Queue: 2 jobs
Job 1
Amino acid sequence: MRLFSPILLGLSFPALANPILVHPQKGQDLTGNGTASKPFRTVSHALALATPGTTIVLQPGIYSTSSGEKFPWIVKSGITLKGNEAQQGQGVVVTGGAPFRSPFLLNPNVTIVLQNQTELRGLTITNPHPRGYGIWQEEGIGIIANNTFSSSRQDGMLITGKSTPTVVSNRFLGNRGSNITIEGDARPVIQQNLLQQAKFGIAVRQQALPQIIGNTIANNDNGIIVQGNARPSLRANQVSNNRQTGIIALNDSNPDLGTAQAPGNNIFRNNGRDIHNNSSQTLNALGNRFDQANLFGKISIEPTIAVAPPALPPPLKPYPTPSSLKFPVVPDR
């Protein structure tokens, strides 16, 4: 039997577009090629074809199983998902989820899994399923910027393993469990986000060591809960109007709220309790603003250097790629 190659037969296949465009109403997976005139219909299809360095651009619309999506989306290394960054995902809505096999938790239901060196920019994400997580990252670095995470049944985002993503300028609104959960040995940077209306604005547990900088954490049951042996560092956050506690520390955890050399510059205001230390450690909380009558437990608050009143964090804005994260640069067309 004689075999013929496509080259010998004179056949050719069109190169895949970069960026790849997806439109949930007008696109076609079978006949599209990912260009503006022939977008794909589903992100699931685009992800199956994408290679490192590819940007997948989501056009306005609702991305769900009704439009043909298959969850969870697995965003492989070096791939970017991009929607409406300027308005933090307005009009680019991803809703859905499915079971995901993870060594860290039994049978979570997940919308999007981020692998190493990925970027997620400008989407609105909801997981309406029981035990539903919007974002799941358990490896590597990455950037999660200018998105909205809203009304997931469990958490807006879970960061675990040894992952170290940068999570910046996002809105987290009304996720039922935690807006963000950080666990394992993860060391993310959580910066300039708005976190509201959850049971916990941020939950930090196990051995996690996140940097939590310049966030607004308000109107939750608890602003921040720290458990296990976690050691988060908190600087220049506004923690206000949380019904039970601004921050509560449990077990052997030891959050760093400020030292003489590095004042916290956090503002705690109108919380049920501003700082509640129920851990085995004495917390350092120097250089912050709070109601001293609203502190509970062993807390060191005596500054040894003068601390200027902290300025309010600047408005949220698109965050540039950190120079330390060397991702492929893909020009828009």
Job 2
Amino acid sequence: MNHRPTLIAAGLLGFTGVALGAFGAHALRETLLERGMTTAWETAARYQLVHAVALFAAAAWQNTSQGT
């Protein structure tokens, strides 16, 4: 089974998690502070990164369990 699409998706999720975290911390900082949404934005970015790692781990686990 080809795991490349899953690994690409994990990479894209990781990239967007980092990018959105940086965007919220720098470009949207004042807006998020004014609206009291800083914690929500940080949590969303963290969940994005956790799911990217989980997707990568799932692809790696499938790869090793199939012996390829």
